[in-house]
Write a structure and sequence with these properties.
The protein is α/β, with parallel strands linked by helices. The protein contains seven helices and twelve strands.
Length: 231
């Protein structure tokens, strides 16, 4: 049984704090006794590989992920089997973003970092925008990559219920997220997450998950058998 949080943003997300760097997050996760995380930046996996490398020093496992904003302005968490697949998926998502350069003073900084928490570059494309994919098209793309499709914070801004007023029957989706312990009347696994954009929001694990090892296949099996419990 591992303690986890599968929705945390790094300094690459324009709405996240600049202190959301690999080592600072690693220290915070260790203090919170969190074993397994996913770094899920908006519309990019640009920092995922460096986080995997750094978090290993803190004995924390990483599940590659990304939070995509669809054409309907719905946030969906996509979880991928490995770093290489995440990078290919991220590149394809980038092709669906508007060809608009980010204005950091207006929309927020989008920082790429190294293993020493030094800023080594900025993502030029605006990551706070919607891609030109509908929910159904994103579902199909996630299937192409063998990924998992999870609706993020459904009742909050950019959540599926907040945006559409309901959860559509199609696509079927794999799980749903909640920010608190709200009861979800669905026959799917419910993932509670911090959706942390600041270090202070990483206080404790959000879920316990029954897995033999922190791998994508074990995560997938835990979702499908609902072997996930909110804390």
């Amino acid at each position: 049984m591992l303690k986890a949080d599968f929705h945390i943003h790094s300094c690459l997300s324009p709405c996240a704090d600049l202190m959301m760097t690999p080592n600072e997050i690693g220290k915070r996760l260790r203090k919170a006794q969190i074993d397994w995380v996913s770094i899920t930046d908006h519309n990019s996996c640009g920092n995922v590989s460096i986080f995997e490398k750094v978090l290993e020093k803190y004995e924390i496992s990483l599940l590659p992920g990304i939070e995509v904003q669809t054409k309907e302005e719905v946030h969906v968490l996509i979880y991928l089997k490995d770093i290489e697949t995440a990078q290919f998926f991220s590149e394809e998502i980038g092709e669906h973003l508007p060809k608009m350069k980010n204005d950091p003073e207006r929309f927020g900084y989008q920082l790429l970092v190294n293993e020493d928490d030094k800023f080594i570059g900025m993502e030029d494309k605006v990551l706070s925008a919607s891609v030109d994919l509908s929910i159904n098209e994103l579902w199909n793309l996630s299937r192409k990559y063998g990924a998992l499709f999870v609706y993020a914070h459904p009742d909050r801004r950019f959540g599926i219920i907040k945006q559409l007023g309901f959860i559509p029957e199609e696509p079927p989706f794999d799980a749903i997220e909640t920010f608190d312990n709200a009861e979800m009347k669905i026959e799917k696994a419910v993932l509670k997450s911090s959706d942390a954009h600041f270090l202070s929001q990483i206080e404790k694990p959000t879920v316990k998950i029954k897995v033999g090892a922190p791998t994508f296949e074990e995560f997938k099996n835990a979702l499908f058998t609902k072997a996930v419990w909110m804390l």
